[in-house]
Amino acid sequence: MYRNEEQVARRAEAMLESSLRSKTASFADHVNRKSGQKSVKDAIAVSKVQKFGPNFYMRSLSIKMPKHGFILDAGVDTTRSGGSRKRNEGNTTYSFKSHTMKMAAQPFINEAVESSRVKDFVMNEITRIRSEAILVNLKKILENR
């Protein structure tokens, strides 16, 4: 049983992160990844909790990962513009034409959220905690009359 929303937030983070890790475990590592560069496999869940008086209130739960993870989730179907580039080494310049870029979507984010069952957990626990707080405050008001 969780006593405050801060504890619920920490548990929700752990549930969502675990589900994300299981969904991204099968993804291949990036070939051109530099050392220290984040991978989609390093996705984390982040919650925001604010303290008002003696109580903590959960404000949000979000997924934090490199932008290419969100691109992988949504897919790409666009036209890339053409142009030219000059290499720093030597005196080489090359041009390229505009071309279509298509990448099939791999919707792992929604699947991770659904399989973690974090939405039901957060709704039930926060509803229980806040309704108990309302009853306690109502009892205090009625006793002071």
Structure description:
By secondary structure, the chain is α+β, with helices and mostly antiparallel strands. The protein has a domain at 5-28 and 39-73 and 106-143. The chain contains four helices and six strands. It has helices at residues 5-24, 67-74, 109-116, 118-143; strands spanning 44-52, 55-64, 76-80, 83-86, 93-96, 99-103. The strands form three sheets. It has a two-stranded antiparallel ribbon. A hairpin with a 2-residue loop joins strand 1 and strand 2 (55-64). Helix 1 crosses helix 3 and helix 1 packs antiparallel against helix 4 (118-143). It is elongated. The mean pLDDT is 90.
Give the helix/strand layout.
Blueprint: H1 5-24, E1 44-52, E2 55-64, H2 67-74, E3 76-80, E4 83-86, E5 93-96, E6 99-103, H3 109-116, H4 118-143
Antiparallel strand pairs: 1-2, 3-6, 4-5
Helix pairs in contact: 1-3, 1-4
Secondary-structure content class: alpha+beta
Strand content: 25-35%
**Would you count the extended β strands for me?**
6
Following the backbone from N to C, one meets helices and strands in this order, namely HEEHEEEEHH
Q: Return Rg in Å.
A: 23 Å
Share of helix, binned: 40-55%
Largest sheet: 2 strands, antiparallel
